């Protein structure tokens, strides 16, 4: 069966990119091809804001090379959008006409509002922040948005970006101290023209290539143990220190920095100065990276237009539904394991044996819903596969630390394996947190064994705590002998952690 495909061409001031999305078996579109060309159209804008003939030809030639790809894939659904460099060009009608006549594409120039709005859509549909300030610094413009309660409140587009700031303030490849001082003063004066930024104390969410490079550079610098940058976070001090470190280098060294694209080496410092300045003004303690940006916002709008609901109600639920489809998880069974796990932890809380926060209850739900996911690959070593898959897959709505929590719980086998899986991330958690997650993991494994035959026979779980013993009373609606065998086999993990013997009584 031929796969459904959809493409977006994003004509930016620095790069032009073609992204192809393919519908997978869960019904969602995922990125299957990503082709980039460094065109730097902003450098072809003349002093009177005309895109030169040379610049137009660079654009046409790039689009013709993309055309070879779209024709090969026999794509018909193609969105072609342009941002600041073309929007700022006074000969934009000529550019649109040339693109239409000389290529397969019909180019649409996004307004300042549309560019900012698509960035906002990408963030709220792929991250779980309810409020924040987004910044998307391109080559020729910088878009800021403020969203609260996941609703767009304010937006603004500044007519400067990493390329134009470099051209305006920095003469050589790297800035002198006097040039940096002038750049910082300019940025502060520009951002302070907005009355909705200063002192907001919200996370700053970076979108686009420069933000992505900042995150990648920091990950390489600290030997970060996870792959992927979407939802990666940095503290304000870490942004400041990375900025100083990059600024201290000769250009040759800067070009060799791991995580930094060679074509961004000359513009990364003005871009990071933008992030630094904004964090100070906002009084933001956190910089978060969204790998999803303008293209994804255009895509979300297109894919949800029939539902009149461009903002997903719950990002994490969407992500976990996709995971369940991808790994053939029996949703009815997963819900039953989750319900059993929640009943047990609530009983343990009532008996004073466990103290959980509302967030911890979320980890119980997510970890139990994905328990044993790795059996999709191999049932014999499913725990190891479960941990690897969840730890290394981007899960929209979950920060990296949160992803590890879910991976530890969903892959729980015993205390020793938990400790081995957690070893790389020990600095991320307190000892008390790890002890708590160890118990939750054992509870989930116990709940899974109560549903061993996937008949979902458990209706209620009661717990009585005695001095050195716990007595579980499990109410079932069918014969429980297969489950009883598994429970007796698995209860030892919970006994060791709670330091109590466990007796399990089954009854109808």
Can you describe this structure?
There is one protein chain. Helix 4 packs across helix 11 and helix 5 packs across helix 10. Helices cover 47% and strands 18% of the residues. 44% of the residues are buried. The chain has 508 residues and is an alpha/beta fold. It folds into 3 domains: 107 residues, ATPase, nucleotide binding domain (Nucleotidyltransferase, domain 5); 184 residues, Nucleotidyltransferase, domain 5, CATH 3.30.420; 191 residues, Hypothetical protein af1432, CATH 1.10.3210. A 6-stranded mixed sheet has the order 8-7-6-9-11-10, sandwiched between helices. Strands 3-2-1-4-5 form a 5-stranded mixed sheet, sandwiched between helices. Strands 12-13-14 form a 3-stranded mixed sheet, with helices on one face.
Please describe the topology of this protein:
Layout: E1 5-11, E2 15-23, E3 29-38, H1 53-72, E4 78-82, H2 84-87, H3 92-102, E5 107-109, H4 112-124, E6 132-137, E7 142-148, E8 151-158, H5 162-169, H6 177-191, E9 204-207, H7 209-221, E10 233-235, H8 236-247, H9 251-255, H10 268-282, E11 286-290, H11 294-303, H12 315-326, H13 331-350, H14 358-369, H15 382-392, H16 400-410, H17 415-422, H18 431-449, E12 458-465, E13 469-476, H19 481-498, E14 501-507
Parallel strand pairs: 1-4, 4-5, 6-9, 9-11, 13-14
Antiparallel strand pairs: 1-2, 2-3, 6-7, 7-8, 10-11, 12-13
Helix pairs in contact: 1-3, 4-11, 5-10, 6-10, 7-10, 8-10, 13-14, 13-18, 14-16, 15-16, 16-18, 18-19
